[in-house]
Design goal:
By secondary structure, this protein is an alpha+beta fold. It is built from 6 helices and 23 strands. It has a 6-stranded antiparallel barrel with strand order 17-18-19-22-21-20. It has a 6-stranded antiparallel sheet with strand order 13-14-15-12-11-23, covered by helices on one side.
């Protein structure tokens, strides 16, 4: 009897040991992800406190777009830690950063130029670009025509303390033309990318699931973004946000189920400036959920700050959930003759049909809305922050009062 008990105990012990071999890597991965999420939540809070306080400090309490001249930007590192870049790391400046972020548990690193300088150069490029594009093509020299044809977009890359300019063809001629007609600023990185691809396609309500619109005889698919409402003179309308280039016409009928079921009507749409977004008022028979199709619960809160390096998730009808990080928090570009600015550029993957899908992040124990997916810029030649573009939900709220819930 004792021998049988001993044998059973030995077998059980061996089984537990073998099981632990398979479980430990899983637990290690889970712990690593949890540690990153906790650190990133703290970094996001530090970033909000720091940038808001910097702006308030400038003009005795008035909010401005300028930062102290020693501030060069910030980003969230791969381990979730916040890195603050300063052109001058004198003790007075680092102490100010710690005080305003209400924490010394962050990393201060040296950079060459201030964020104010990069922002001024970005505005210079934007203004020059707009002026040049308004000229008649027949009056333009060949090098300028080639540059404008190749020009995709631009934005500040705080992590690397520079401006990134996206061209379809990075050539000596195009770079020379850029410096000649726009700016010869030396902190510009030129990257090569393919032409723009928006994520809607002609083919057959949880967040991120497929919806369709009819244009003539064709059915075009997009994705449900985030659940939201608007207040029209005391009357509340409920529905969801999606891409403006997908739901691009007021009073347009939106379908679900391969075009067989009406789920809502487009009440508002904008495809310019800081927005490619539409508000679809859902039918009374449709209840938009606060969950993605994989049952991830999205809180009614939304982000107002977007530090580079912050992890974001995209859920779209075509590629489901993918993840990446924010590479530029104020990216500008033009597509199909429409100018956009203050968009997010991220490293998550997307496919045709993902347009309008929800983009979100994990902060303080909840998934919060970041915005909606617009499209992709094509393949970037080895550049670290890939190619996805998203509209900020905060801009949709600020301009049109479209409120996530």
């Amino acid at each position: 009897m004792k021998k049988n008990v001993k044998q059973r105990f030995s077998a059980l012990f061996l089984a537990l040991c073998l099981l632990s071999v398979f479980l430990l890597p899983v637990l290690a991965d889970s712990t690593e992800l949890t540690t990153r999420a906790i650190a990133e939540s703290q970094s996001y809070l530090q970033y909000q406190l720091l940038t808001t306080a910097f702006k308030h400090q400038n003009l005795r309490g008035e909010i401005t777009d300028a930062y102290p001249d020693y501030y060069a930007g910030a980003y969230i590192r791969e381990d979730g830690k916040l890195v603050v870049l300063l052109t001058n790391t004198a003790k007075a400046n680092t102490d100010s950063v710690y005080a305003l972020a209400r924490s010394s548990d962050l990393i201060v690193s040296t950079a060459t130029v201030s964020l104010n300088e990069l922002t001024a150069q970005r505005e210079l490029i934007a203004n020059a670009w707009q002026t040049l594009r308004q000229s008649k093509a027949e009056d333009m020299p060949d090098d300028l025509l080639n540059l404008l044809d190749s020009f995709v977009g631009f934005g500040i890359e705080e992590r690397n303390n520079r401006i990134v300019v996206s061209l379809k063809e990075v050539s000596g001629n195009n770079i020379s033309a850029f410096k000649k007609y726009l700016t010869s600023y030396d902190r510009i990185y030129f990257e090569q990318c393919a032409s723009f691809e928006k994520q809607n396609s002609p083919r057959p309500l949880y967040l991120g699931t497929p919806v369709e619109v009819r244009i003539e005889l064709d059915l075009y698919s997009g994705s449900v973004g985030y659940r939201c409402y608007r207040n029209i003179n005391g009357t509340f309308e409920y529905g969801f946000a999606t891409a403006g280039h997908f739901a691009n016409t007021i009073n347009q009928t939106v379908y679900v189920g391969g075009g067989n079921i009406v789920c809502g009507t487009t009440m508002l749409t904008q495809q310019s400036g800081t927005l490619d977004a539409a508000f679809v008022k859902s039918n009374e028979a449709i209840e938009v959920q606060n969950k993605t199709a994989d049952m991830t619960i999205i809180a009614g809160s939304w982000c107002t700050s977007f530090p580079e390096g912050m992890t974001v998730y995209k859920y779209g009808a075509a590629s489901s959930q993918t993840s990446g990080t924010i590479g530029s928090n104020s990216y500008s570009f033009s597509n199909d003759g429409i100018d956009f600015e203050d968009m997010l550029r991220c490293s998550y993957d997307a496919e045709d049909g993902d347009s309008g899908g929800i983009v979100y992040t994990y902060i303080n124990g909840d998934y919060a809305v970041v915005g909606i997916h617009y499209g992709e810029l094509g393949f970037f030649s080895g550049h670290w922050f890939s190619n996805a573009i998203a509209t900020k939900a905060h801009n949709f709220y600020t301009i049109h009062g479209i409120t996530p819930y």
